[in-house]
Every structure is written in structure tokens, then in C-alpha cells.
């Protein structure tokens, strides 16, 4: 099927982007920069809303917006254009918490966007297997939910610009498929695993299938990873487990994800993008929406 043949669901894409940005901004509040981990954990367990008046979103949202814009403009992942938009987002504000690899790569793409083809595979000797391609992709899955094959293909195309390693790409495919399935009312972890390329991300998803939802989230994070290693396979299984645990309640989903700590802005961005694709952000407390940095 040609990429232009899949009718986009723009409303679902927007809901997912709002949820992603909310998760990112909420999750960032629990970073050690703002709260030492014991205090963060206690406050999360007490469901105490972070008191700061402005919750800034981070690189997860900055790059998700860039991807969203390219899809709005072109209808599909136009890779060289996306490389440029990623680089422009980085250039506009480098203090959004980008990882080491992106600090190396994105300035080079600003000068020469098409060079992602040679530069991305050279990162970390074999391409990045980090969670950066997964953290930005849920709105793409929501947008193209009517064709899961298209979702997987477009997710991979946007991933390889920065994350050339197969596991970096697999994480993005998994999250995009999860968001698409959520919008379709078909989201389960085993279905996501069934559409994820073989490897450590899929292995993690299959382990997540076997973690009962009665498990406390921090224990699930112990079993599945919480993103602390910033790898895709350390991040995606837990973030999707909490999304599957709370598919109709964004607030509950984000609290559960936050309990895992680790790379908590990114795990919450992933969960928020998947659950938010269905719920939107209207169900969360007004205070959360007032505090989250606006999207545009
Ligand atoms: Mg971030």
C-alpha cells in the first residue's frame, strides 16, 4: 500500500501528542535534579502532585513535535526533512535533556541533514539502541492506526535517522504499534510483541506479558527495567506494561509509570502517548494541564 493511501486520524495523533507531552513534563519532575530518589518515590506513592508551577517538557516532546510536523506537512516520514527538523529542534533549545548521542549527531545534521545515512550507524559502533526513537513515536502510531503494517514501517523510517541499531528501531515499532492498537481498542502486550521484530525488545515485551497487573509498578520495573540504562529494551516493556494496566485512565497510568523512576520522563512520555491517544488529556486534574508547558 502506498503511504498516501492510509487515511490519517489527526485527532488521535493530537491526543497522543498531548498525552506524550504531559507524561514527559510530569515524569521530569521526579528526576534527581528536582527530587532525590527516596523523596520522589515517597511522593509518588502518596500521589502528591509536584508543586512546581511550570512543568517543562523535554527532548521527548521536542522531537515528537518535529515528527508530528513532518507528518502534517508530507503525510509520511520524509526522512531528510525529518532529520532537518530534529536538528532544528535541538538547535532551538539544547537544554532539553538530550542524550550524549544526540549532542554528537544533531548539530551535524543541521548542516547536512542527508548525512544521517552515514552518521547514525556510526554512533556507538553500530547505531544507537537507546530509547530516543521510541519516546517520540506514539502519535505516529495513533495517526496511522488504520494500517498496522504502515505504522510499523513508518515507525522504523523515523527511527533510523537517529537510532540505526535494530533494537533502537524495534522499540519504536513496538510503541507505535501499541498506540495504534490502543486507538483501535485492541491493545494487549502480546499483540504488540507479535508485531515487534525479534530481539531483546520483543523478549522484554514477552516477559511483560507474564507480569500480572496486580504487581506493584515498582516491582514490575525491577523485573522489566525502568530505562535507567537508557536502552530501548530497558525502557519500552515497562512503559507499555503500565499503559496496558491502565488503558483508560491517563492519570493512573502516569503515576504507575512514575513509580518505576529510572528514565522517568521518557517512560512517562511513552505511556502518556499510548494511553493519551485514547483518552486525551481532559481527564487529568486541571492543575496538571495548567502546569504543563504549552505545546505551541
Ligand atoms: Mg527527555
UniProtKB/TrEMBL annotation:
Its EC number is 3.2.2.-. GO terms for molecular function: hydrolase activity, acting on glycosyl bonds. Keywords: Glycosidase, Hydrolase. The keyword Cell membrane does not apply. The keyword Hydrolase applies. InterPro entries: ADP-ribosylglycohydrolase (IPR050792), Ribosyl_crysJ1 (IPR005502). This is ADP-ribosylglycohydrolase family protein. It comes from Streptomyces poriferorum.
Amino acid at each position: 500500500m502506498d503511504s498516501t493511501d492510509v487515511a490519517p486520524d489527526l485527532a488521535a495523533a493530537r491526543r497522543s501528542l498531548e498525552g506524550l507531552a504531559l507524561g514527559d513534563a510530569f515524569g521530569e519532575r521526579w528526576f534527581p535534579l528536582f527530587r532525590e530518589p527516596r523523596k520522589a518515590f515517597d511522593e509518588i506513592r502518596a500521589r502528591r502532585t509536584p508543586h512546581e508551577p511550570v512543568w517543562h517538557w523535554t527532548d521527548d516532546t521536542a522531537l515528537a513535535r518535529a515528527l508530528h510536523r513532518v507528518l502534517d506537512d508530507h503525510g509520511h516520514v520524509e526522512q531528510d526533512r525529518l532529520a532537518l527538523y530534529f536538528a532544528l529542534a535541538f538547535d532551538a533549545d539544547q537544554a532539553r535533556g538530550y542524550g550524549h548521542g544526540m549532542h554528537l549527531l544533531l548539530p551535524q545534521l543541521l548542516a547536512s541533514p542527508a548525512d544521517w545515512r552515514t552518521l547514525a550507524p556510526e554512533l556507538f559502533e553500530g547505531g544507537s539502541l537507546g530509547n530516543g526513537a521510541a519516546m517520540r513515536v506514539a502519535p505516529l502510531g495513533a495517526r496511522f492506526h488504520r494500517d498496522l503494517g504502515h505504522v510499523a514501517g513508518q515507525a522504523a523510517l523515523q527511527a533510523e535517522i537517529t537510532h540505526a541499531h535494530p533494537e533502537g528501531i524495534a522499540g519504536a515499532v513496538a510503541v507505535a504499534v501499541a498506540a495504534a492498537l490502543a486507538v483501535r481498542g485492541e491493545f494487549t502486550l502480546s499483540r504488540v510483541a507479535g508485531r515487534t521484530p525479534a530481539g531483546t525488545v520483543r523478549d522484554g515485551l514477552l516477559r511483560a506479558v507474564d507480569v500480572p497487573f496486580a504487581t506493584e509498578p515498582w516491582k514490575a520495573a525491577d523485573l522489566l527495567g525502568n530505562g535507567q540504562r537508557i536502552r530501548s529494551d530497558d525502557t519500552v516493556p515497562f512503559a507499555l506494561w503500565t499503559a496496558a494496566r491502565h488503558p483508560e485512565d491517563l492519570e493512573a497510568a502516569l503515576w504507575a509509570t512514575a513509580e518505576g523512576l529510572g528514565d522517568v520522563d521518557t517512560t512517562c512520555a511513552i505511556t502518556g502517548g499510548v494511553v493519551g491517544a485514547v483518552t486525551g488529556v481532559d481527564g487529568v486534574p486541571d492543575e496538571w494541564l495548567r502546569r504543563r508547558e504549552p505545546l505551541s
